[in-house]
Amino acid sequence: MLMEPFLPFAERTCPRLSVVVPCYNEEDVLLMLEARLSAACAEQVGDDYEIILVNDGSTDRTWPLICVLAERNPRVLGVDLSRNHGQQLAVTAGLQISRGDRVMMIDADLQDPPELLGAMMAKIDEGADVVYGQRVVRHGESVVKRGTSALFYKLLNRLAEQEIPVDTGDFRLMTRRVVDQLNAMPERFRFIRGMVSWVGFEQVPLQYERDARAAGETKYPMRHLARLAIDAITSFSTVPLRIASHLGVLAGFAGLALLCWAIWRWFENGVIVGWTSTIAVMLIMGSMQLIILGVFGDYLGRLYIESKRRPLFIVRELRSQTRQGRQAGIDPMTGVPLGLAALDAHH
Ligand code: UDP
Ligand code: MG
Q: Taking CA atoms, which of 144, 154, 231, 346 is between 20 and 30 Å from 100?
């Protein structure tokens, strides 16, 4: 059976399995990835799968390579985004285009072994809706990265309203009803693993050892990780806003105490010169106010950006054996501009 991924939505056949892979400058691993991934898929579902390789604005030969793979393998679907959108939006694009009854998300770098697909499928057969990979050992990651990651999950779980499992990445297998829910979530700041937990249903871990990158280097310098962490916290919690007002109350009490002390000193006739203490209080209060304003500003900025409701991603081109070179920004399945409008057409 030759898949026709770009038929109008209603006519396109739904494979049993879709695999979504975000690829950013992954030319060194792509061939290895495709070989191992398609072997793992074939073992589980025979021919009935699709691999969606999303090129997230790579600057190396990732896209030409994806085109070659798509030409060679009828089950590979290449998606070329118009620019670098970031991993979470690249995955979002893949999830929206995917049609499988079950969808696996996996990084391109083979840190997460595709061979675990069998174990994940088994858990879904037993009734789970989401099987998320949980790392028990991580090879090739620095102590600093592991430490900050542990700290981040602790903080996130203190702040967020629903539990977000520790030590997970985006490596997971989900049923169609979960993916449909994800696709219906319009937010721009996407912390996908948190959004998946939020959906609910039966979610079970699958523990595994995380390998080092097969080749190439990490696309997440600390700076980007910090941004992802802030996105995660602000998307799932408004506690920082509350902390800000608690700080205000605290500062109020401290100020009152200081005032009492000053008045008492005045009665005692011991009015002090007091320049240093005045300046100190002013500086502390000033910086506290700025921090609080900054937290408010961050939420406000997010509100502003979300309110524009721009499409989450823009597709330049799609490649498979059956079709190639579609118009930029148009959903190949519906003819609707890609992004939010496509959601309505899909549901
Ligand atoms: N990635 C992406 N866009 C980006 C950065 C990364 O699509 O802007 C992809 C990358 O190609 C890989 C996955 O996201 O498939 C995870 O990246 P990486 O392995 O570098 O992160 P790490 O495992 O080091 O946290
Ligand atoms: Mg990696």
A: 231
